[in-house]
């Protein structure tokens, strides 16, 4: 390598790693404050929340049903009662008949009804009707009617769909077949990696086969429409005769329908042919960039596994959001006071006003002069700053969650972009590729560009918050809307959906420019957008060619692994020498669905890395074309294949 080029390589390396400073510091500080506040909200939610609200029902005393001594007699009813029905404290006396003590009073948790068994209908626990007290009745029913109601409710649930039993069978299937499910996912991973690596050699043939295949499908559609159009030449059926109908088959009997299809397909086919003729050079550039991306993956295999890091970070964000939301939603403990059930007793004056108590530790012996003293549930605690702002804290939880998720995705984009950029700007590949480029790029992003990544994530989060509000309002007032308001709401939702897609596009390319040059978010977004707009045709061609190729790749991986899983788990493929039997599975389609879904996630993860590589190398290629001219001072860094397509070459340095 000559001295000038060597110097230039050092300058490029400096751009990638040394000549940087922290960007968008204000947004970085704001993001850190939001994270700190998010941690505080999580701690407060953990202190005040109780997820048992979700797992167990509460009775009218505010205590959890079925926990400890608080067992209840439970049956299924169509709706909750509108009145409180309780047993008088006198019902616990020996020989007392509970049916004689049903009253509409305050609920009292402090008595024990001896002989009463806990019957759980929903829990699936077995019960013996003989354990039910014969003198116990429900409001408005006698003893026989009460027993019949319980039996009918239990019989309906037993004979119906038992989701617990189905879940156990599915779990049993997973326990029997998990090794083969893992084997199917490993096959999907291997096929995805090999497909991406082989694109280095097969991309030209594969892309041209796909393009010709699309044209062939269009040509077949034209022929078929023409054939149907001619076969209906004697038909007198028109749209005037048919009118409006929901039966689509009727319209297919109209000759003009096939004429319309024929005209549309012919126009589309002509546009595709003209695009193929006039854009063939740009298609060749797209193919060369795809090949170069495959070559880069071959030199930096670690990039293929970075989606695991993103997945783990997203899992942490989702788990923290879900747990925090659960604890916030279950905040507010039951509030109890000591109440004298018989106010005529003179000794009850010892009970102080607003005296609180704990029903689990309360004992009437604490008030010997007032035997009717009871620890009574009043309401749920809604006092205090925390309880009054639960709704605001839930909004904060959603906002911080979306910001963190978008930041994690932005960090992944910037890390991969920096890795692929370090490959492109290495003059002699692979000799000039940095050591551990993925780790270096990850550390650069965290050290210098947290503020810029948080800035882009914040913009996207605000748009997503607006979309959530619109969806909420649309759902809330859907029945009250007239056609005009529904149209306005539909337009707003559509506009913000498009705005979100546009911001994602801008952010993605801004992160690439941040990874290359280390500028702040606004400058990087402006430079990326201007660069792409100056090469809009190349952008469209590369985008569509890459989408077509990756769609075919996903179809190949998911479809191939899914078909293999179907033949294996349905018993059509025998595996000699193994103890696995498909006949032992309760639902053989569950492992198939698991393998197909897992294969899609694996293929999507690998192909997302590849797509990011194509976008990064494309922006680097455009920068290379605009900033360099092939001279010894400004040599091209593109591959020889790209220089050949564009009729470019690096000029040798003058000697002497």
Share of residues in strands: under 5%
- Strands of the biggest beta sheet: in what spatial order? 1-2
In total, the number of strands is: 4
Runs in which pLDDT lies below 50 for 5 or more consecutive residues are 1-15, 72-77, 84-93, 101-141, 153-161
How do the SSEs run, as a string of H and E? HHHEEHHHHHHHEEHHHHHHHHH
| Mean pLDDT reading | 76
Structural category: mainly alpha
**End-to-end span in angstroms?**
16 Å
Give the number of helices.
19
Q: Cα-atom Rg, whole angstroms?
A: 35 Å
Global outline: globular
Residues in helices, as a percent range: 55-70%
Largest sheet, if any? 2 strands, antiparallel
Topology overview:
Elements lengths: L2 H15 L7 H24 L3 H4 L30 E2 L14 E2 L39 H17 L3 H69 L7 H4 L5 H4 L3 H24 L1 H20 L6 H24 L4 E7 L32 E8 L4 H4 L1 H35 L12 H12 L1 H27 L6 H35 L3 H13 L2 H34 L19 H39 L12 H6 L11
Antiparallel strand pairs: 1-2, 3-4
């Amino acid at each position: 390598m000559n001295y000038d080029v060597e110097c230039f390589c050092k300058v490029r390396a400096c751009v990638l790693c040394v000549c940087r400073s922290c960007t968008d510091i204000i947004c970085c500080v704001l993001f850190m404050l939001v994270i700190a506040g998010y941690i505080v909200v999580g701690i407060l939610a953990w202190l005040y929340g109780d997820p048992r609200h979700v797992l167990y029902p509460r009775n009218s005393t505010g205590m959890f049903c079925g926990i400890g001594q608080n067992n209840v007699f439970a049956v299924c009813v169509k709706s909750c009662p509108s009145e409180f029905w309780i047993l008088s404290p006198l019902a616990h006396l020996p020989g007392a008949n509970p049916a004689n003590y049903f009253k509409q009073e305050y609920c009292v948790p402090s008595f024990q009804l001896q002989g009463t068994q806990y019957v759980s209908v929903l829990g699936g626990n077995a019960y013996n009707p003989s354990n039910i007290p014969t003198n116990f009745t429900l409001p408005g029913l006698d003893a026989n009617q009460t027993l019949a109601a319980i039996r009918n409710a239990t019989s309906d649930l037993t004979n119906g769909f038992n989701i617990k039993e189905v879940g156990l069978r599915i779990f049993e299937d997973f326990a029997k077949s998990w090794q083969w499910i893992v084997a199917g996912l490993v096959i999907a991973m291997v096929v995805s990696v090999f497909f991406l690596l082989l694109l280095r050699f097969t991309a030209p043939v594969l892309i041209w086969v796909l393009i010709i295949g699309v044209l062939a499908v269009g040509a077949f559609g034209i022929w078929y429409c023409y054939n149907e159009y001619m076969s209906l030449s004697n038909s007198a059926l028109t749209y005037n005769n048919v009118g409006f109908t929901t039966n689509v088959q009727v319209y297919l009997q109209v000759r003009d329908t096939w004429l319309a299809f024929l005209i549309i397909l012919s126009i589309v086919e002509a546009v595709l042919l003209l695009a193929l003729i006039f854009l063939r050079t740009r298609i060749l550039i797209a193919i060369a960039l795809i090949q170069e991306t495959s070559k880069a993956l071959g030199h930096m295999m670690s990039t293929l596994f970075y989606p695991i890091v993103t997945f783990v970070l997203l899992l942490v964000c989702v788990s923290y959001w879900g747990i925090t939301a659960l604890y916030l939603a279950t905040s507010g403990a039951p509030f109890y006071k000591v109440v004298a059930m018989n106010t005529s007793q003179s000794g009850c004056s010892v009970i102080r006003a607003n005296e609180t108590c704990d029903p689990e530790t309360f004992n009437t012996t604490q008030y010997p002069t007032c035997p009717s003293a009871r620890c009574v549930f009043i309401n749920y605690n809604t006092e205090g700053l925390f309880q009054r702002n639960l709704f605001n804290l839930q909004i904060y939880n959603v906002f911080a969650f979306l910001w963190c998720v978008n930041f994690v995705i932005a960090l992944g984009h910037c890390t991969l972009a920096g890795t692929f950029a370090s490959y492109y700007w290495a003059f002699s590949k692979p000799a000039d590729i940095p050591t551990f480029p993925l780790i270096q790029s990850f550390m650069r992003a965290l050290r210098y560009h947290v503020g810029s990544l948080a800035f882009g994530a914040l913009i996207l989060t605000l748009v997503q918050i607006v979309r959530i509000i619109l969806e909420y309002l649309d759902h809330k007032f859907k029945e009250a809307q007239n056609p005009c308001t529904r149209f306005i709401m539909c337009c707003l939702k559509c506009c913000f959906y498009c705005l979100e897609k546009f911001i994602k596009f801008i952010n993605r390319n801004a992160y690439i420019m941040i990874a290359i040059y280390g500028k702040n978010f606004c400058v990087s977004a402006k430079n990326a957008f201007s660069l792409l707009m100056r090469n809009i045709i190349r952008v469209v061609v590369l985008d569509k060619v890459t989408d077509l190729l990756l769609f075919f790749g996903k179809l190949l991986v998911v479809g191939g692994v899914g078909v293999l899983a179907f033949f294996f788990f349905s018993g059509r493929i025998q595996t000699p020498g193994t103890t696995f039997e498909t006949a032992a599975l309760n639902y053989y389609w569950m492992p198939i669905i698991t393998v197909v879904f897992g294969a899609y996630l694996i293929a999507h993860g690998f192909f997302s890395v590849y797509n990011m590589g194509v976008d990064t190398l494309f922006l680097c290629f455009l920068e290379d074309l605009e900033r360099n001219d092939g001279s010894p001072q400004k040599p091209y860094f593109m591959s020889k294949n790209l220089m050949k397509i564009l009729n470019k070459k690096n000029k040798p340095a003058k000697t002497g």
